[in-house]
Amino acid sequence: MTQLSQSLPVGFATSLDDQGRLTGDLACRSCGYNLRGIHASGECPECDTSVGRSVYGDSLQYCEPRWMKSVARGANLLLCAIVLNLFLRLALAVLVSSVGLAAVVDHGATILMFVIVAIQAAGFWLATMPDPGLGRLETAYSSRRIARVALLTSIALNLATMLLGFLGTADQALLISILGISLVSIIMFVAGAFALLNYGRSIALRIPDRKLASQTRVVMWGWPISLAVVSMTSQIAAWAPVLGATSTSLETMLFGIAGSVT
Rounded to whole angstroms, how far apart are CA atoms 75 and 82? Predict the structure, then answer.
């Protein structure tokens, strides 16, 4: 058992009684069990995790290691998706200049974009895994929850538009439907990106690293706003072929839309 003193860290939300038991609500950082009434030097009755891990506030040093590894894996997958997306765009620019490869490039780029979006979805899912230590203390509309719902919804809509374009025909009704869905997808993505960076800022404060948190705040405002401008510009440009799109131009347009939210 972890031996703790009868005093808790300054600013701690609960306190100890004369027998050294927690007098207020405190969620176990491993399973979320309420440790109220448990001795400070004891263990969680649900998962046997030392109460000491839950006592020292929100510091990442004392958080559940498996949760931290999941968040780290998610961040790595998101970085991988960004690099692959950039590589795909550079490769596309080179190949399109080759005579006779335009149709092949369009098909290949669409398929690869499905893979990139799938990696991105896995990254968002892992990066926004709930901290078991917060338990019921997390609000219903926390930045983490908003980011998870908004970003995964955006990806689902994005995949839907890509699938419709890949399997459908280039008629006006289909194009208008795809562009409408993609607009909703972009709005959800921008909102989710803002919430994700706000969530990242809260994690930076738990390191604690105020400089990193300050930098995250700058990106939190700059990235979604610039993304919204670029995405809306892409949408305006995408309306051009609506009245006379061919199958190939449809796939090219959808590739641009998908890339604007990845």
Answer: 11
Model confidence, pTM: 0.69
Nearby residues of 27 by Cβ (< 8 Å), 6 or more positions away: 33, 34, 35, 54, 132, 133, 134, 135, 136, 137
Tell me the CA distances in angstroms from 249 to 103, 185, 235, one per residue in order: 9, 21, 14
Q: What is the dihedral of CA 63, 69, 72, 76, to 10 degrees?
A: 180
**Terminal CA-to-CA distance of the chain, rounded, Å?**
47
Q: What is the DSSP letter of 59?
A: -
Integer-rounded Cα Rg, in Å, for the chain is 24
Q: What pLDDT digit, counting tens, does each position of 21-62 carry?
A: 888 888 887 788 888 888 887 888 988 777 877 777 677 877
Say how far apart CA 248 and CA 198 lie, in whole Å. 39
> Bridge-partner residues for 16, per DSSP?
22
Residue ranges per structural domain of the chain: 62-260
- Characterize 194-213 residue by residue with b for buried, 16 or more Cβ atoms within 10 angstroms of its Cβ, and e for exposed: bbbbbbbbebbbbeeeeeeb
Side chain identity, residue 232: M
Strand partners of residue 21:
39
Distance of CA 70 to the CA centre of its chain: 12
